[in-house]
Amino acid sequence: MIKKCLFPAAGYGTRFLPATKAIPKEMLPILTKPLIEYGVEEAYEAGCEVMATVTGRGKEAIEKHFDTSYEVEDQIKGSSKEELLADTRNLMQNCTFTYTPQKEMMGLGDAINKGKVLVGDSEPFAVILADDLCINLEGVNVLKQMTALYEKYQCSIVAIMEVPMDKVNKYGVIAGEEIEEGVYRVSSMVEKPEPSEAPTNMAIIGRYILTPDIFELLDNTKPGKGGEIQITDALLEQAKQGKVIAYKFKGKRFDCGSIDGYVEATNYFYENLLKK
Question: Which residues contact 129 (CB under 8 A, 6 or more apart)?
């Protein structure tokens, strides 16, 4: 039912300078695979066929990664190293990759709105932030959990997790009524509140399913926190109509937009995947 996934990938990744001076942060590797490929794999496993990316200046490496590299592939042809590209080739063969630029950094809401030309405005679509790396080693991945939930509720869905109260000012935070275990009908949400102003400690992470009316709402959303167009402001308008579900996902999330989270993810994947 959800066939398209949008990847906002126009940010500069300044927390990782100088590494991200010429390399997109989405191309930083966890072991041997770039962050964005983990996101594309998650979307593909959840049933998405179109991978739409909102890019920015200096992001050409993302497009090149999901395209044929004749020189590299010729060099490894017939060798054991050919298998190292098997997962990437599978995605290239089974998915359609599209791109559009966000020419000015105006926030996540603006980036998603720029993606309208790629995903259209007639069907629901997923959104993955590649630097939020999510895994579930014992079951279905996070986005697939959310697409199953969409089939039931037919409205926008945000993935949430509990965070320490002193960290809520880094996230969009929701409040709502629990309608089944781990599932909330959102009544309000606020972007990066101070701990004293946060309604709960349930924070939105980088997984969304959005209904197409979000684009009209974004068109009418004025700059909010930080002078940017915030997706939480547009989602709040949907929530006022009872049309947003928050889901406490099953799995583990790594904030690979931070150095601590990036190192934690690298160590975790090495210990739990590579060594096996």
Answer: 7, 8, 39, 108, 205, 206, 207
